[in-house]
Design the sequence.
């Protein structure tokens, strides 16, 4: 049992800086649909839950720092937590980008949707895929993997070591490459479909210039794209969740 002192309160506050900075950007937790008061309470609850595990590690590091280094420690911890949260959000941003590209490739961009992770307008298909990914994030217990990754981050990026911008940018660049590579991989059937269907209708337009093939082709493009989505959506989301899980487990 740990006695509560001024040092203990400061150490817990240091944990809150990293954990709260992560949850401030992590998908699901940082949604504007969640009130700010609830997000603050979640960050505080997670910090208090992890405090018994992290207290020996953080207290040993904080004991080496004098009063003049406290502000630097706070800024470093907030930056590290924000970096972890932004790297997790990169997967959802890449998925949303490719979902918008998929909606455009099948001609399904005219119907507006209600965004989940932000307030900007988005195609209905993009909002649907993003909402499904957010639900699977919690259903698959990946939010627990986020907490495990936060605990492991204290070994990879100790409190006593100042945040390295070069290391952070390198990690962010690697995650961006992995996220967009994964999103391009799972949306590749729609890219191939868009190229093939446009080439076919382009040939048809050349063969029958008297007919406005473009205007009559849109319903067929939409129906074919929705059929392709129907047969591939399960693998689409499974591959995304697996890729995100691999990053949370090994990243």
Sequence:
């Amino acid at each position: 049992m740990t006695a509560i002192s001024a040092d203990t309160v400061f150490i817990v506050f240091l944990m809150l800086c990293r954990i709260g900075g992560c949850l401030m950007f992590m998908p699901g937790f940082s949604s504007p649909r969640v009130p700010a008061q609830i997000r603050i309470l979640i960050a505080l609850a997670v910090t208090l839950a992890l405090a018994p595990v992290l207290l020996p590690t953080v207290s040993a590091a904080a004991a080496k720092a004098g009063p003049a280094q406290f502000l630097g420690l706070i800024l470093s911890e907030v930056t590290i937590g924000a970096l972890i949260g932004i790297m997790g959000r990169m997967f959802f941003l890449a998925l949303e980008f490719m979902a918008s590209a998929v909606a455009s490739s099948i001609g399904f961009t005219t119907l507006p949707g209600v965004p989940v992770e932000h307030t900007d307008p988005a195609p209905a298909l993009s909002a649907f895929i993003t909402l499904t990914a957010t639900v699977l994030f919690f259903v698959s217990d990946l939010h627990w993997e986020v907490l495990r990754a936060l605990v492991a981050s204290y070994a990879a990026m100790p409190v006593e070591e100042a945040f390295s911008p070069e290391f952070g940018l390198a990690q962010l660049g690697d995650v961006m490459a992995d996220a967009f590579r994964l999103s391009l991989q799972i949306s590749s059937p729609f890219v191939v479909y868009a190229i093939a269907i446009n080439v076919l209708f382009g040939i048809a337009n050349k063969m029958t210039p008297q007919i406005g093939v473009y205007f009559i082709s849109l319903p067929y493009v939409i129906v074919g794209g929705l059929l392709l989505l129907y047969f591939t959506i399960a693998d689409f989301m499974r591959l995304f969740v697996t890729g995100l899980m691999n990053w949370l487990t090994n990243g």
Observations:
- Residues 90 and 176 are 6 Å apart (CA to CA).
- The chain has a mean pLDDT of 83.
